[in-house]
Specification:
The chain is of the alpha+beta class. It has eleven helices and three strands, in the order αααααααααααβββ. The chain has a three-stranded antiparallel beta sheet, with no helix packed on it. Strand 1 and strand 2 form a beta hairpin. The chain is globular.
């Protein structure tokens, strides 16, 4: 997919085509071509996305408490959600990848495509402001129709079960972290006494 086709697919035409190219440039491609990658845009896009989602759920679900709004937003901006949004307009096909990532199927890797979605959103923001960003993102939020509201909050469920015994408590122990500062990946154990009940990995 070329950039013209991508712009048609997302319903936004860039004034500055260099911004779009930067948003599509994975670090593997940028290193080969000795140019900037989309990592800084990804950093900005993460915040823009969070704001738009927060405002959307706050406005459209006036009776939901803060905790439920937080869960709805988290579900709407998590990696699997972004990957599903990006697949609707074949963003992976437009990514600029290094030879190794291309051969390894990077265009279909959820983390890579989700990061590119955030970078693309930041590029739209820098090119056209917040209005086209809202138009771009809110169509995905509308289609979710608040389904995130019914997602299980496993952490809360676990706390409720453990607290049935007042003397018991769980600990969350960071065991590993990796990745660049703006997109850290953390591995955390949940422990009851010395027993590991489960392991979580995420940003």
């Amino acid at each position: 997919m070329n950039t013209q086709q991508l712009q048609q697919a997302i319903g936004y035409t860039f004034h500055d085509s260099a911004l779009l190219e930067r948003a599509l440039s994975h670090s593997s491609y940028a290193n080969e071509k000795k140019r900037g990658s989309n990592e800084r845009l990804e950093f900005l896009g993460d915040s823009v996305l969070g704001f738009i989602a927060a405002e959307y759920f706050y406005t459209h679900y006036p009776n939901q408490p803060e905790g439920e709004l937080t869960r709805m937003r988290a579900a709407a901006v998590c990696e699997p959600a972004l990957f599903s949004y990006a697949k609707t307009f074949a963003l992976g096909d437009a990514l600029l990848l290094g030879r190794g990532e291309l051969a390894g199927g990077g265009a279909e890797r959820p983390s890579m495509v989700a990061d590119a979605f955030e970078a693309l959103l930041a590029a739209i923001y820098l090119d056209g402001g917040i209005a086209p960003c809202k138009a771009f993102v809110q169509k995905f939020l509308r289609e979710s129709n608040g389904k995130s509201a019914v997602l299980r909050d496993s952490k809360t469920e676990l706390q409720q079960i453990v607290q049935q015994s007042p003397e018991e408590s769980v600990d969350y122990v960071l065991v590993e972290e990796s990745g660049p500062d703006h997109a850290k990946c953390f591995v955390v154990d949940v422990r009851l006494h010395s027993n590991v009940l489960g392991v979580g990995r995420g940003r």
